[in-house]
Amino acid sequence: MNVHIIRDSDVSKDLYHEVFGHLKESKGPLMFHTNENLIELNDSVVENNTLSKDDFHRKEKIPEYSIKYSLDCNYAYDFPYEREEFSPEALLTKCNNFRNNHDVGNNEFVILLTEKANTLNWFAFGDKNKNIFIHTSEWDFYLDCNRSFPIAYQVVSKILQVLLFKDITDFGAHAHIDETRGCVNDFCKNKIDVSLKMKTADVCKDCQSLIIERSFPNPIFNQITTVFEELRKKLISVERFTSRLRPGRVLFRGRIRKMILLDAGDYEVRLTPLEKTVYHLFIDNPEGIKANEIGNYRNQLSSLYRKFYNGTNIAQFENSINALSNYFDDSIQQKISRINAKLKSTVGENIAEYYIIKKDTADEKYKITIDRALISYKVSYK
């Protein structure tokens, strides 16, 4: 069964591929696909809403009507909080348009990742035509982790629910509305309760009985619960890692040097080839580099990029290196900012200080301060 993951223009490419990375690791009948076409919401009707803190936490009740296409933390927000919201119909219409324009079959899922909030204030919503949207922002209010974890969880949990329940009324009859069990079908009327669902990654006995009663396909159920468990382990491992008072070990694995945090459950920090080039430049020069001296490292940047570059366009390769090594070009600062943001979102602000590239005010050099004794390399998987 094909699952097409699409995104709106506000969802970053990095987040998009991180979510996909969690999903593609699973084995089973669900086949996840990306698409680089961006979904624009500019032509959809938007509502401006101001929420109190209580409103922000509270999900709207389950709709007593059929949606078109038949449906069937710790971050400091200032309240009242203003945001733009789109109706579920508008977001599901975007999924349906993609389905029609790309000849997606009726038995395939289309899942839109969107930074835009919805008027229901739900994390995710789907219809019986296998159209689903996932709200990708504001997760830092509910979970102190990389938001790719809960977004990936929402993807597979909504697939399960769309396949399991006949319509929205059926979902309402079986969802745990007034209690939180740590089950996939917890409604989480208070959205903060989603953290329990993520950390247990469970399907309660009542829902297991319903799954058996309705002959839910075992291969799909096994694949979904495997994703649940892998996400739970990653979440717990990263939480333990971020609670440490010292940095952990880093493994750069394989020819392209995947960055693996060994003490965070072998979590991979996904860097682009150019980001890897910049990061390893500073790993290989622990004494640091002054910004106005970056041109002296052009040959080293070129040598590193050859290890990671997977293209064939020589002109593009040279242009990238020229930009990185040009003091008057902001290319390298952009890469440093993106690398640092990824590390902070993974391990938290405090521990990230050991891993990020930052300026030492004592000598004005950019450095990575982690003890190199914590770094190891493994050329192959053998």
Structural write-up:
- This protein is 39% helix and 18% strand.
- The protein is of the alpha/beta class.
- It folds into 2 domains: 2-241, Collagenase (Catalytic Domain) (3-Layer(aba) Sandwich), CATH 3.40.390; 250-378, no CATH class.
- It has a 5-stranded mixed beta sheet, sandwiched between helices. A 4-stranded mixed beta sheet has the order 11-10-9-15.
- Mean pLDDT is 88; it is low at 64-75.
Number of helices: 13
**What is the CATH architecture assignment of the largest domain?**
3-Layer(aba) Sandwich
Briefly note the CATH topology name of the largest domain: Collagenase (Catalytic Domain)
Count of folded domains = 2
Helix content: 25-40%
Briefly, what CATH class of the largest domain? Alpha Beta
Uncertain segments of ≥5 residues (pLDDT<50)?
64-75
- Pairing-aware structural class of the strands and helices? alpha/beta
Strand order of the largest sheet: 2-1-5-8-7
- Please tally the β strands and state the result: 15
Write a brief structural summary.
By secondary structure, the protein is an alpha/beta fold. The protein contains 13 helices and 15 strands. The radius of gyration is 23 Å and the shape is globular.
Key attributes of the depicted protein:
single chain, 382 residues, alpha/beta, Collagenase (Catalytic Domain), 2 domains, four-stranded mixed β-sheet, 13 helices, globular
